[in-house]
Amino acid sequence: MRRERRWSALPATLAAIALLATPALEAPTIAADDPGALEPLMALLAQRRHGIADFEETQYLAALKQPLHSAGVLTYEAPDHLEQRTLKPRARSMVLDQGMLRLQSGSRQRTLRLRDYPEIAPLIDSVRATLAGDQAALEQRFELRLQGDLDHWQLQLRPREPKLAAMVQHIRIAGERDAILQVEVQQSDGDRSLMIIKPRE
Amino acid sequence: MKGARLATLAVWLLAVALALSVVARARFSADLSAFLPRTPSATQQLLVDQLQNGLAAHLILIGIEGGDAVQRAQAARALDASLSAQSAFLAVNDGDAAGAERDRAFVFAHRYALGPAVTPDRFTVAGLHAALEQSLDDLIGSPAGLLAKALLMSDPTGETLQIIDQLDAGGAPHSEQGVWSSADGQRALLIAETRAAGSDTDGQARALALIKSSFAAAAPASGQLRLLLSGPAVFAVAARATIEHEAKRLSIVSSVLIATLLLLVYRSVTTLLLGLLPVVSGALTGVAAVALGAGVVHGVTLGFGITLIGESVDYSIYLFVQSHRGIDRGPLQVPARLWPTIGLGMLTSVCGFASLLPSSFPGLAQLGLYSIAGLIAAAAVTRWVLPQLLPQRLRMRDLAPFGAAAARLLSKLRGLGVVVIVLGLASAAFLYFHRGQLWNRDLAALSPVAASAQALDGELRSELGAPDISNLVVISGQDQESVLQRAETVSRRLDSLVATGEIGGYDSPSRYLPSRSTQAARLASLPDAVTLRQRLGAATASLPLRPEALQEFVRAVEAARSDAPLDRTALEHTSLALALDALLWRQAGHWYALLPLRANRSGPAGGDIDIGRVRAALSANPPGTVVALNMKQETDALYGSYLREAVRLSLCGLGAIILLLAVVLRSAARVARVIVPLALAVLVVGAGLILSNVQLTILHLIGLLLIVAVGSNYALFFDQRASAGSRADLPLTLASLLVANAATAIGFGVLAFSRVPVLSALGMTVAPGALLALWFSALLGPRALFVDAPAPSRA
């Protein structure tokens, strides 16, 4: 009787957190395309078991008079536990654990199952694939383009699925060896967001 | 003499023809109504409406198992498409993306009519400021903006999310390969709403057949996929099929067994057929009487009717066996005391069954009527028709030697009379000590639906998030508008119960279709474009939002102001229509709204709902228009009232039997001689059932009454023999009683193997009870039975 009626932005948000959740070191240097470097990078990412990092995020949206800033803490435990705890300007948290998404903002709380969102699920699964170093699953969902070398790399993901592509033009992840330090989401309408990640070591 | 004989036969044939024509036109039903009260109270009426026509009564829950997820999803989509095209279904839903898309589009398009938070305050500068702040807040931690951003510009006050949060409160099913699935992903799920009402078992059966054939066409030929069906319709159709099948199978089995027994006894097909005439006449008369008296014959009644075969055949057995002088010794000679004794026995049985007539449990009342009419007809045919048809010299086996052997055995067992009494007293003590656990107070104990089917229903229901109707508020009214308005008032009360944690949540038809007055009030609270632009400018002054980014919002509000109120047809093709139909319906000129309540798992009542507190919270409403129900409490109360009534009626029946015996026998000692062995048999059977871990239901109780009603026949024969002071015919009497007793035990014994609980309960009680009644009556019988048991008469 009940349909899937939720179309909250939260799952989409989750996609971004998941992308962001691996710790990183510093900005990458750009090198020539090197498809052959993808396998070693995936292997390297897969070795990373856990991490904790501070993040600062800025959203550049046409509807806003000025960019929207927020900051907080990211936590990752391999293979499927991710947390984004926003502390500023207001406390919010999103926790992904074994496919369940828990969202909390003030007294409002909801729990969602990721696979109930078929439009977003491929994106999330690809992220899981990235974190797990599962190149095949990743390539099924996205066109991948890797630049740089293992020490300074930049991975660009372009959604293959039209629904996702209608919202997201590309996601650009930059990192150094097994650490991610910047995630940029470029939306199809020109809005974009940038998250800078500072691992706590 | 010959004229009288012809007249008798003519009357009989005419009566049979009349009964046949009534039976041919009778309406037979096998739905739940046999178990529902005949003259319900207002609350019971709501319960009955619920079970027959209300929420979910015409929803069929469908599961597809086996194969892989892709195959299941393909089959589900194909099934959805093919059922949606059939007029037998109002709606079919498999949770596909297209359907979800339609729902979203509908909610979004009508967000200002449906939105629970749309009030004039919402569109003041302060209200807009608060709403916009909230929407901006949702962007934080949502780096890509994505959908939240789209909503911010077209629906910055967040009405759509408000509606969706409210509608989603019950929890949507999981999704796999784009269709609904169980939590473990192993089962694709669909839901279908039949056009046929829940009480239209034929219509439901056709709908189920359509689902099965469509599935067969939709599923891959490999046959890996299995179809699971559940819901009230499935139960009703299955129950009817089971009852029909059981009634047919059991009556054939018991007919064959009894016919075999009689053939062994009579050694003559003619005699056998003659002996069955009263049975057939009785059965026909019984069905005809029920059809005339009750209008509809319940399938269960036909099942009960099998018991009549076992009892009505007794009369002809008494006639044949006791009248038979042996082939060589001249024509039939009906013993002088035969007819009065049979007549009295028949009357005691009628007294027993008559006590069922006033029962508010329709199944029992029909059983009573059926049996009374059947027994009178069978006895009358035996008394007046059979003698006219009997040949001068009845060809049958002489049972005197058999009877004499039984008499000798009885003499030897005489000492066991004491044992019988001790056994009876021990049983009484046993029952007394277990008096707290004698009765099964669960109405489900009577349900013909198998426990496994009920378990599957529970699984599918929770997986589909289909409404749970264990606690609900029912609202009635003259028209749809007043019912919806009342639902909105009640909703506000329920909101406060949710806030205090008394209940976890609730659903209401007014969420899917608000009353016209509420819709009008919501739309009237929307400001015009000029005013809204001004207020937005003021509201965004201190916010990071650009007011010019909200042009789409201004246009949408302006357009909504002139929208016509939504009605049921506007919801067509959305799942909201399906939800609305389940919660709002019209019946017999009245409109009903249903608000299922959800328990608060961490609430004060520990996951339960204290329906009394809900009632108290709703007490301000006009009486009778709003009723809070706990279905389990109501059904249990209903069943409890059946049980109490059945106890009362059984005692009345027992009293009537004793009174009848007292009037006819005119001797307290003789009444006691008849009643005591029967009472002991009842006690021993009752204790035996409890010992075999059978909890007694209402049908066991009726069975105990029938032990007295049926067993009195035997006791009366013994009593009659004793008071007549003649022992000459003892062997034949004993033989006839043994044969009749065996026939009765077979009739009821076969019933004990039924898969329909009400039938098996009756069978397992009466079959052993009848056997014990005979033996107890004999062992405790008058001394005259035992002294000088005659030698075999042919010796």
List the helices and strands and how they pair.
The complex is a heterodimer of chains A (201) and B (795).
Chain A: H1 10-20, H2 38-47, E1 50-60, E2 68-77, E3 81-88, E4 92-97, E5 100-105, E6 108-113, H3 121-132, H4 135-141, E7 142-148, E8 153-159, H5 162-167, E9 168-176, E10 179-187, E11 192-199
Antiparallel strand pairs in A: 1-2, 1-11, 2-3, 3-4, 4-5, 5-6, 7-8, 8-9, 9-10, 10-11
Chain B: H1 2-25, E1 27-29, H2 42-52, E2 59-65, H3 69-84, E3 89-93, H4 97-109, H5 111-114, H6 125-139, H7 146-154, H8 159-167, E4 174-176, E5 179-181, E6 187-194, H9 201-218, E7 226-230, H10 232-266, H11 269-294, E8 296-298, H12 299-323, H13 338-354, H14 362-389, H15 400-413, H16 416-433, H17 451-464, E9 471-477, H18 480-499, E10 505-506, H19 509-512, H20 516-524, H21 529-540, H22 551-561, H23 575-583, E11 584-587, E12 590-598, H24 611-617, E13 626-630, H25 631-665, H26 668-691, H27 698-724, H28 730-751, H29 757-779
Parallel strand pairs in B: 1-8
Antiparallel strand pairs in B: 2-6, 2-7, 3-6, 4-5, 9-12, 9-13, 10-12, 11-12
Structural account:
The complex is a heterodimer of chains A (about 200) and B (about 800). In chain A, about 25% of the residues lie in helices and about 45% in strands. The termini of chain A are far apart. Chain A is an alpha+beta fold. Chain A has helices spanning about 10-20, 40-45, 120-130, 135-140, 160-165, and strands spanning about 50-60, 70-75, 80-90, 90-95, 100-105, 110-115, 140-150, 155-160, 170-175, 180-185, 190-200. Mean pLDDT of chain A is about 75; it is low at about 1-30. Chain A has five helices and eleven strands. In chain B, about 65% of the residues lie in helices and about 10% in strands. In chain B, strands 9, 10, 11, 12 and 13 form a five-stranded antiparallel sheet that branches. At the A-B interface, helix 1, strand 2 and strand 10 of A face helix 4, helix 6, helix 7, helix 8 and strand 4 of B.
